[in-house]
Design goal:
Low-confidence stretches: none
Number of strands: 0
Mean pLDDT: 91
Distance between the termini: 44 Å
Shape: globular
Number of helices: 5
Number of domains: 1
Structural class: mainly alpha
CATH architecture: Orthogonal Bundle
Helix content: 40-55%
Strand content: under 5%
CATH topology: Globin-like
Radius of gyration: 16 Å
Order of helices and strands: HHHHH
Length: 156
């Protein structure tokens, strides 16, 4: 797969499906922990690192919590439920991102870290493609800042 990325369009309805349970089954709990730890280590070294705590212990706690989200999302044990606060998995994750100013560039940086991680992960490409479809589409829902027109641009 080419890990295609489509642009986020403000107001566009985004349709997605959760990743297939076979993704979790192929990696297992430890494999998912490893993959997501590698991913978040890349994120911590990226341009969006400032979205995360800079204290190592605090970052490890966020990384662990987010990893539990992905494990449950992919059909693993229901180990993230305690964080849901009466929302579904995806709805909860969208709500968490509302506290940050996330633009398309930040989304692309996040997706780039995920692409590198998936490319390094030894598993069937069809399963990686299915997971990518989810993260690529779902990530659009975290974008909450869009470029605005400026009435002065034409006169400058």
């Amino acid at each position: 797969m080419s890990y295609e990325v489509t642009p986020t369009v403000e107001g566009e309805k985004v349709e997605f499906s959760n990743p297939a349970q076979a993704f979790y089954e192929a990696l297992g709990y430890e494999g998912m922990m490893d993959m997501m730890n590698r991913f978040y280590d890349k994120v911590f070294e990226s341009e969006i690192a400032t979205f995360f705590p800079q204290d190592e212990q605090e970052f490890e706690a966020v990384k662990h919590k987010n990893t539990l989200f992905f494990i449950q999302l992919c059909g693993g044990p229901k180990i993230y439920d305690e964080h849901l606060q009466d929302k579904g998995l995806n709805e909860h994750m969208i709500k968490i991102h509302e506290d940050f100013t996330i633009n398309e560039k930040s989304r692309l940086e996040w997706l780039g870290c995920m692409q590198e991680t998936l490319e390094e992960t030894d598993m069937d490409q069809t399963l990686k493609d299915n997971f990518w479809e989810y993260v690529e589409r779902f990530s659009k829902l975290t974008v909450n800042t869009f470029p605005q027109e400026c009435r002065y641009v034409s006169s400058l």
